[in-house]
Amino acid sequence: MPQPSRSSSLTDPRLPWPFALSGVVARVALFFSTRFAGGERQYAASLVLAAVLLPSAFVRARLPGNRVFVWMVRITVWAVMIAFGPTRRATGFSIVFEPDYVHLFGALCGTELVLRSWTRAASPRGPSRGEALLLAALIFMSASNTWTSVHMQTLVPVYTVLTILCLRSFGPAKRTTRAPLVTLRVSAVALAILVGFTSVFAVNRYEQKIMSWAVDAFRRERKRDKAEIGFGTAPPRLSAVFNPQPSMRRVMLVEGTHGTSERHMRMIAFDTYADRQWRPVLRERGFAPLAVSHQDEGEHVRITPLVDGMELVALPVETLAIETDETLEQDALGTIRVQGADVQSPYGLVVATTADSGGQVLGALDDAHRSAALAVPSDVDPKVLELARRVAGDGDASSRVARIELHLRSNHAYSLRYEPAAGAEPLSDFILNGRAAHCQYFASAAVVMCRAAGVPARLVTGYYAHEKYGAHATVVRDRDAHAWAECWIDGKGWVTVDATPAAARPDQAFPEASGVRRFWERVQDLPRLAREWLSSLRPRTIVLIIAAPIAAVALVSAVRYLRNRKRQSVVTARTYIQPSAELQFVAREFERWLRRRGVPCAGHVTWREHVNSVAKRAGTPSPIDLTLVVRFIDAYDAARFGGVNGQTMSRILELASSLEG
Amino acid sequence: MDKDLTTLPTFAENVARLETNLASVIRGKPESIRLLLIALLSRGHALIEDVPGTGKTTLAKSLARSISGIFRRVQFTPDLLPADITGSSFYKPQDGSFEFREGPVFTNVLLADEINRTSPRTQSALLEVMSESQVTVDGKRRDLPNPFFVVATQNPAEYHGTYPLPEAQLDRFAVRISLGYPDRDSEIEVLANQRDHHPFDDLKPVVSCEQVIGMQDAVKRVRVDPAIADYLVRLVEFTRGDPRLRLGISPRGSLSLYRASQAGALIRGREYVTPEDVRELAVAVLAHRIVLDTKSKYAGQRNEQVIAEAMEKTPVPR
Q1: Positive or negative: CA dihedral B27, B30, B31, B34
Q2: Nearest-CA residue of chain A relative to B313?
Q3: What does DSSP assign to residue B297?
Q4: Is B279–A572 a contact, with Cβ atoms under 8 angstroms apart?
Q5: How far apart (Å, rounded) are the C-alpha atoms in residues B30 and A160?
Q6: Taking the model in full, what pTM does it have?
Q7: Is CB count within 10 Å lower at the N or C end of chain B?
Q8: pLDDT digits (tens, 9 = 90+) for A380-436
Q9: Which one-letter DSSP state was computed for residue B117?
Q10: Mean per-residue pLDDT of chain A
Q11: How far apart are CA B286 and CA B306, in angstroms?
Q12: Spatial separation of the C-alpha atoms in residues A417 and A433, rounded to whole Å
């Protein structure tokens, strides 16, 4: 008998050809990328998937489409990927072709391909349009795994065009004759190659530009925000306006607050004032590795950054120790950052509970820096020094600082706008004339006056954390940006001196976040919380969590299957008066044969009707030889329903063996 | 195999002749013609149902003419009385006796045209006629000629002045045939054929009454495997338990399907019935016998669907 053609098994007749071809392209891409792109470990999973995929194209027995089982595999793979897959990298916020994301998608789509190829197509024309779209996207992602390899850069665009063509073949098949379709396909492949080379050329030529466009598009917002806040790389300048449009964006979450919820979260300190500006700027500073000491006594606080691009570690001045896996570095002014990256992962702090013990993290004040911290800026009016000494009076450093703080608080009003008198030095003008200004002036004035009174001092910017978030946490927003002074008290260390009047602090000066916003933020937090929760679990627990619902579903489907089988056994031909054992055997073998061919016969139609409908299915080569099968069915029926005789029986067996080929 | 083998060639020949004869008049409807022949050969009666002008009456007339027997036609009208069909006794003044004058049912082929236009009273006169091939008038039983075959036509689209056939009456029809419009080519052919005269006028009888009786007897001897009978009964049982139906299929219905399947098998040249024979005829034989309850009827269910569903839910013997 003529065997059904198997030469096209790789591009299974039940899948539209571009679809199958794009699958092959993706597989080839995965293979080559493993060989040449050097990402062995990351691609290993994809390769295994591809290895499972290939034989599946040759095997006829398929998984039934869209069954619970298929979905279970799908969900498991996704869950594993999410739980153990690559997360945000220490190298920071990277987009477009971030390798790890692409790997993740590659593995996902590899899984999807495998599932798809082991799944029987729902209709003779292949998967539905929606599935095809989804899969095409996934395959594309998988193929773009190969972006680094020159070979693959050609394949990806080819693949893209094929995908588009594949979607075309899902459209209505009216009036399509064979000949134009072949021309179309040939010209499509030619076009694909042309488009492939053109785009490879274009991408190679303009790669830098494309990347920078994309980066800009994603980063623009963040840059703007940073500029507004006025800290970070830009040194604080005594400007006319402070925080003119307070943003409600959340910067970080401070958890583990048991006593006071109000904290000065310092980020960067400055010790040199000249020409309205505090220095040195961040990029001019020298950083040295910070030894992480361990400390158990104290309040444990956890800081979770909520924005991208936080360059410095925020911490209260009383911090005793920092708990983090990252490598930290510190400059002479106590500014701490993560080595070579933005602050992205949460870190823990141990904070002194009593005000007496100063922070150990910030280190001691050596002689070189003591003189800098005592230097009164030369452009400040000498009257300021007089005033400072008069206000501070005699007594120890703490009491002098306290008097200066009180003086500033009680003699100056608060205003977000400050217009200095013409020609005057703004800081001296503020101090001497009792002007109203914003926190940067109060902080600068406190620093200058403390220095004049003989207490080492420096200016600090950061955030004033105060907004409660649940019982034991505070949330810090952009609008909480603040500036204050730090003074060195011998025997105590650095202490926070916030001379800004209470009404002028961010908690009083700016409106509260609305209830709607807070609710929405809680919702936004859910994925992060889920992720944190997952990462806090032990692998065994995760496996259990994944396995439990799957086991439940498996149990339910097993029960359902058994019940169905019971019902089906009632609804099979077996309940009829059975023919001779010989005929029963032939019938069983024939049905098995149909199953092997991928066209099992349902119980409620006759064989003849079934094979006719199989033969009628348009667009696919029939897996059975109709004339031969019909001849067999004729002979079988004659024996089964017309009464057996020896001659018919031998004829049946002869026909049956010819079916087997 | 039975001894029928010797009669089989003649049977096939006769069927072929009848089919060709009918096909020369009714174009493009081989299935309907076959169903009509199955009704005739299984000793049943046929109900042809469709909108006006599709050739119902022509088909019935053509069949009657193809058999060289007596053919009578009754146009059912609202004022038709039972006696007008069965016949009645007349007083003979000469000798003071009563003489029975046979009605139109004393025929081989009776065409009951527009059967739903007469009152149920008159329709019921056909009950005995159709099931027992006899007439009882004035207490005296009279046998009808053999073969006796009723072809009734009705137009389901029209409701004015019609009386729907009672279920008991419907049950006595072996098959219900729906002709439907011909396809375009066949219709063009119909127009061309009737240019100067109706092809019906050229029809000649091709089989004799005796041959028909012989064929009917041959049908009875077609082998039905117990598994097939089982399958057939399961189909029927499905309709009896169906909550959507006010009335399921009677044993008369299963018997009709049994006979029709035999006829269908033999027409195909087989001396045994296969499940396909049953499945092919199930809708034509069974659909008109069931009665949907009002709710399902207005929910858009159709009798044919119920039968198709019965076939879908019943396993086929193999």
Answers
A1: positive
A2: A604
A3: H
A4: no
A5: 52
A6: 0.48
A7: N
A8: 888 888 888 888 888 888 888 889 888 888 888 887 777 777 777 888 888 888 788
A9: G
A10: 71
A11: 10
A12: 16
Residues A408 and A518 in one domain: yes
Q: Residue A559's CB: how many other CB atoms inside 10 A?
A: 10
Tokens representing residue B20 in the block: 């060709």
Give Cβ neighbours of residue A353 (< 8 Å, ≥ 6 apart): A259, A298, A299
Give A311-368 pLDDT, tens digit per residue. Answer: 888 888 888 888 888 888 888 888 888 887 778 788 888 888 766 556 677 777 788 7
Residue A642 is given by DSSP the state H
**pLDDT tens, A519-531?**
888 887 887 777 6
Q: Confidence band (pLDDT; 50, 70, 90) for A14? A: very low
* Cα separations in angstroms, B197 against A162, B19, B57: 62, 21, 17
CB contact under 8 A, B1 and A643: yes
DSSP state of A623: S
Mean pLDDT of B271-287: 92
CA angle A604, A609, A612 (to 5 degrees): 145
Q: Residue A2 falls within a domain, yes or no?
A: no
**Can you tell me which residue has the tokens 């220490």?**
A90
Nearest-CA distance B89 → chain A (Å): 51
Provide the number of structural domains found in chain A: 4
Q: The tokens of B65 are what?
A: 């003419």
pLDDT greater than 50 at residue A376: yes
For chain B, which domains are there?
1-79+108-134+145-182+207-215 (3.40.50.300), 222-318 (1.10.8.80)
Residues A561, A580 within the same domain: no
Q: How far apart are the first and last CA of chain A?
A: 6
- Helix ranges (H only) for A335-438 are 367-374, 382-392, 397-411, 426-433
Domain span at A618: 576-660
Q: Nearest residue on chain B to A642, judged by CA atoms?
A: B272
* Crossing angle of the two packed helices A382-392 and A426-433, in degrees rounded to 10: 40
CA A62, distance to chain mean position in Å, is 34
- What whole-number distance in Å separates Cα of residue B316 and Cα of residue B318? 6
**Phi/psi class of residue B161: alpha, beta or left (left: φ > 0; alpha: ψ in -120 to 50)?**
left
Who contacts A431 (Cβ-Cβ below 8 Å, separation ≥6)? A384, A387, A445, A448, A449
CA distance A104 to A102: 5
Phi, psi for A338 (deg, rounded to 5): -85, 135
Q: Quick one: residue A373, left, alpha or beta (phi over 0 = left, psi -120 to 50 = alpha)?
A: alpha
Do both A561 and A598 map to the same domain?
Answer: no
Angle at B249 between CA B247 and CA B254, to 5 degrees: 170
Alpha carbon distances (Å) from B287 to B16, B30, B165, B265: 27, 20, 14, 20
B7-62: per-residue pLDDT in tens? 567 888 889 889 998 888 888 888 999 999 999 999 999 999 888 888 888 888 88
CB A126 within 8 A of CB A11: no
A290 SS3 class: coil
Using CB atoms, pick whichever of A572, A604, A640 lies closest to residue B312. Answer: A604
Rg for chain B, CA atoms, rounded: 20
Alpha-carbon distances, residue A323 vs A264, A351, A361, A464 (angstroms): 19, 11, 11, 22
Which chain B residues contact residue A640 at CB under 8 A? 225, 227, 318
Binary contact (A606, B316; C-beta < 8 A):
yes
Choose the final residue of a domain: A531, A555, A586.
Answer: A531
Residues of A in contact with B230 (CB under 8 A): 576-577
Residues 6 or more apart whose Cβ sits within 8 Å of residue A604? A571, B311, B312, B313, B314, B315, B316
Per the listing, tokens 């146009």 go with B75
More reliable by pLDDT, B285 or A585: B285
DSSP type of residue B243: T
Angle at B314 between CA B312 and CA B318, to 5 degrees: 110
Predicted ipTM of the assembly: 0.85
